[in-house]
Write a structure and sequence with these properties.
Radius of gyration: 21 Å
Distance between the termini: 60 Å
Number of domains: 1
Number of helices: 9
Helix content: over 70%
Oligomer: single chain
Number of strands: 0
Shape: elongated
CATH superfamily: MetI-like
CATH class: Mainly Alpha
Strand content: under 5%
Order of helices and strands: HHHHHHHHH
Length: 226
């Protein structure tokens, strides 16, 4: 109200009005699905890869040592650098999936590896003495130890996947993506559209995170400690 210049800071009322007109546009659902499917794909690929690599690294110390510089590099290199290189190698339409994958992988890997290392060694020795079956070891020893680490990794990486994925689309602006919509709002100095699409991104990110974490907790509900 003090600034009174929509170009610099748009009114929340104008943003809400634009949201109502935005969601009924023909292309809105296609744009949202385009970005949602690719970021979700990148997240799940990063999650699965991180879990598998952490299991191998937890079992073999040499694998952890070999993976360490790669994970540090992925975590340290700016998203923009990855995007520029990826644009040379891949299509812009797959950019958000690749970048989301790269951002999720080291977080899941690091957290799960810490969870594996936190397993009580005495419990494992007891399991060996009593010849506990693999299934019961997994349910009563391994999963309870890594469960909080896994949930924490998913919460952190989901938000980062959306941030990095949309940022990648903004740089590569693949046709029919949320990133392209943000790019054009910047190009035409359309602050109302910029804020409206930002609200959409936040809603999608939070909804996806809450739903996935809820389902994950539901799946791990039967996990118990001895």
């Amino acid at each position: 109200m003090v600034v009174d210049i929509d170009l610099l800071l748009v009114s929340p009322i104008d943003v809400v009005k634009r949201l109502f007109t935005l969601v009924v546009e023909d292309e809105f659902l296609k744009i949202v699905l385009f970005t949602l499917t690719r970021i979700a794909l990148g997240f799940f690929l990063g999650l699965v890869s991180g879990v598998l690599l952490s299991l191998v690294a937890g079992r073999f110390k040499i694998v952890e040592t070999m993976l360490w510089p790669y994970m540090i590099t992925i975590k340290s290199v700016p998203v923009a650098s990855f995007v520029v290189v990826a644009l040379i190698w891949f299509k812009a339409s797959n950019l958000s999936a690749l970048i989301s994958f790269l951002m999720v992988l080291p977080i899941v890997y690091t957290n799960l590896l810490d969870g594996i290392k936190a397993v009580d060694k005495k419990m494992l020795q007891m399991a060996d003495v009593f010849k506990m079956p693999f299934g019961r070891r997994m349910r009563f020893i391994w999963l309870p130890s890594v469960k909080p680490f896994l949930i924490s990794a998913c919460k952190i990486s989901l938000g980062l996947a959306w941030k990095s994925g949309v940022a990648a689309e903004l740089i590569g602006y693949p046709k029919g993506s949320v990133g392209e919509a943000l790019y054009y709002s910047k190009l035409y100095l359309d602050t109302v559209d910029l804020f409206a699409w930002t609200v959409v991104i936040v809603i999608l990110s939070v909804t996806f995170e809450k739903l996935f974490v809820f389902l994950l907790k539901r799946a791990l509900k039967g996990v118990e400690t001895l």
